[in-house]
Amino acid sequence: MNDPAWLQFIGDFGVRTLEDARVYLLESTLAMYARMGFGLYLTELKESAVPIGVCGLIKRDFLEDVDIGFAFLPDFRKQGYAYEAAAAILAYGKETFGLKRIVAITSLDNQASGRLLEKLGLHFERVISFPPDGEDVKLFAAHL
């Protein structure tokens, strides 16, 4: 969560210590599992179980639809892992939760994530305002 790309494209959640991480997991990730039955999942290499990132479903209060999110450690970007994980999450959302539409948001300058979303079948819809500070983000969507 403190990788420069995470900070640039996703945001600064103020996680600097183990206690910060514990609070973030309890109030965000684990709370999402409890409320929705899904959240961000650890992504790891099959052969070695080395953690390489996260990918999953998120329900944000300001979006009508569930969105897909992903982030990978620098050494594991641009190798197809994000596509593989995100494609599996899209299928999981459809098959397990009956989702008919999934959205995604990216910062305006995050072309890499935009290209991946389009490769996955999502299409740019419009620019929306991201609470609480009103930052403009791109909204992508796919009907499943």
What's the CATH architecture?
Answer: 3-Layer(aba) Sandwich
Fraction of residues in H or I helices:
25-40%
- Molecular shape: globular
- Give the biggest sheet: 3 strands, antiparallel
CATH first level: which class? Alpha Beta
Number of helices: 4
What is the third-level CATH name, the topology?
Aminopeptidase
| Nearest-integer average pLDDT | 94
SSE arrangement, N to C? HHEEEHEHEE
Beta-strand fraction estimate: 25-35%
In the sheet with the most strands, the strands line up as: 1-2-3
Low-pLDDT segments, ≥5 res: none
Structural class: alpha+beta
For the record, what is the CATH homologous superfamily label?
Answer: Gcn5-related N-acetyltransferase (GNAT)
Give the beta-strand count. 6
Evaluate the radius of gyration.
Answer: 15 Å
Number of domains: 1
How widely separated are the two ends?
A: 30 Å
InterPro entries: Acyl_CoA_acyltransferase, GNAT_dom, N-acetyltransferase
Protein name: Alanine acetyltransferase
Domain N-acetyltransferase: 1-144
Explain what the structure shows:
The protein is built from four helices and six strands; from the N terminus they run H-H-E-E-E-H-E-H-E-E. The protein is of the alpha+beta class and 144 residues long. The chain has a single domain (39-143), classed as 3-Layer(aba) Sandwich (Aminopeptidase). The longest helix is centred in the N-terminal third of the chain and has 19 residues, at 18-36. The protein is globular.
